[in-house]
Amino acid sequence: MWEVPEHWTMQDAATVPVVYSTAYYSLIVRGRLQPGETVLIHSGSGGVGQAAIAISLSLGCRVFTTVGSNQKKEFLLKRFPKLNSDDILNSRSTKFEVDILQKTSGKGVDVALNSLAEEKLQSTVRTLAEHGRFLEIGKFDLSQDHSLGMAIFLKNVTFHGILLDALFEVKHEKQAVVSLVQEGIK
């Protein structure tokens, strides 16, 4: 499906398309991320997180991300010099909710790419701005059929469960992701 650049290792060839397919499908196809928007990306130091940060920064978005340690924060600052150190938050507690709302003057984020569960998922939902888009790539709360609460929809938000395997059932979305990944590889 993709041409593999000569300088890639076999590990790159096996992993990069999967993480970028997930990130592009989530952010661009389902989340309709636009240049200049504000985005929250959980687990920023993971593969999908790094791909999502790269895509978001390439669109000129303000990126908030969470990590579980200072070591991971330092890694991201070296990998993505455009990230603001103060916008890399702790994923080990729900304090990121208060921090984001404070840093956005109460507005919240336009798009949230979520992989956290339970109370951290609920905190993430509350960071959404009016007309925000919530992109759930974690499977725990989906598979456990946990409640979301309806009040958030008073902000006219959308919620997307992102299942990459479902992408292959919708031809035009599959082609869009293949094109986005191929363009990104170039």
UniProtKB/TrEMBL annotation:
Check the record and name the InterPro entries matching this protein. ADH-like_C, ER, NAD(P)-bd_dom_sf, PKS_NRPS_Biosynth_Enz
Question: What one GO molecular function would you report for this record?
Answer: fatty acid synthase activity
The UniProt keyword set, sorted, is: Fatty acid biosynthesis, Fatty acid metabolism, Lipid biosynthesis, Lipid metabolism, Multifunctional enzyme, NADP, Oxidoreductase, Phosphopantetheine, Phosphoprotein, Transferase
Protein's GO biological process:
fatty acid biosynthetic process
Stretches assigned to the Enoyl reductase (ER) domain? 2-185
Entry-linked Gene3D superfamilies: Medium-chain alcohol dehydrogenases, catalytic domain
GO CC annotation:
cytoplasm
Q: Which domain of life is it from?
A: Eukaryota
Entry protein name: Enoyl reductase (ER) domain-containing protein
**Which organism is this entry from?**
Cyprideis torosa
